[in-house]
Amino acid sequence: MSWKKIVVPKNELNLRLTLLGGQSFRWKEVENETFIGVFANILWKLKQNDDSLLYKIEGETNCDEIYLKMKLNTTKPPKKAKSKQFYEDVHYENLLRCYLRLDVNLQDLCQKWKKAHPHFTEITNLTNHEFLGVRQLNQAVTENIISFICSQNNNIKRISSLVSKFCELYGTKIANCEGDDWYSFPNIADLKDSKMEEKLRASSFGYRARYIAKCTEEIKEKGEIEWYSKLQNLSYKEAHAELLTLTGIGPKVADCICLMSLGHLDSIPVDTHVFQIAKAHYLPSLKPTKSISSKVYEEIKDTFREIYGPYAGWAQTIMFCADLKQFQMPKKNLNTEEAEKIQQKIKIEVKITEK
Predict the structure, then answer these.
(1) Per the residue annotation, which of 45, 71, 252, 279 is the catalytic one?
(2) pTM, to two decimals
(3) Where are the beta strands (DSSP E) in the chain?
(4) Partners of 177 in the beta sheet?
């Protein structure tokens, strides 16, 4: 398949930061600014120029019906006759628009966020605005759940290795490309291995092997797509509470799933990066605090939502990327007085709203 394009201004999308910034673990850079990875059972190559996103299909298996039903409200994409390509071009474009949330004008959001707090302006000024192109991915639920169980006490490189191994064990081979075999991510119905925990432990998943084996059984019992659809239609708090019933899912992982797969874009996953950002720029009263208690976790989430609104989780994703060492974000803190003034203003506004 030749390269196809979707018109997307470069200030609306930074592929490197979006794909390699800890949201998904299925992508890698194969040459300067060209990325290869899998979603929706398709092996993609992506790159961009000043005004377009360019994509190329390197292989595919049958469509991921759960992803299509949840994200595009269809299970029958238009097929293409007499072609190596399974479907019409419009199907692949729709998938990319959905996955990258290209229906949302990111620059409009960023302008609002810059007005909401000087820290956001500071990030963009120090990095020549490149972080303004970080998009919030719209990922498959099962992949997200298992990926973020793998993320516990891990780094991005190691998580990517575990996710790749899981796909190799239980997915379907799509193609060999750039020297690697690429596999689909299995749906829960495909996981019928009574010895899954044993296999995963032998593949260096450690304690996560038990979590994954039990969690997949629990999702199967809940009905997989029926349960996923229910979570997508629940309020954020209700969906978060439901996810906590799964083995291996704590508050942060539940927030990752809500944000990255269920459309709850005000969800705020609070890890050590976000904790340090909050202490330095938003909640100076937390500076003496050494760990993230349940109370501190909720305080940080509430503060970010109050400042950044219904897309607060997306704003947090940009801040998270800016804080990753691999992207070499220069650091400069607001002084304590500025942060305290902003926090006081938020408290006053919240009290007025409550009245």
Answers:
(1) 252
(2) 0.89
(3) 4-7, 27-31, 34-39, 42-48, 52-60, 173-177, 180-183
(4) 180
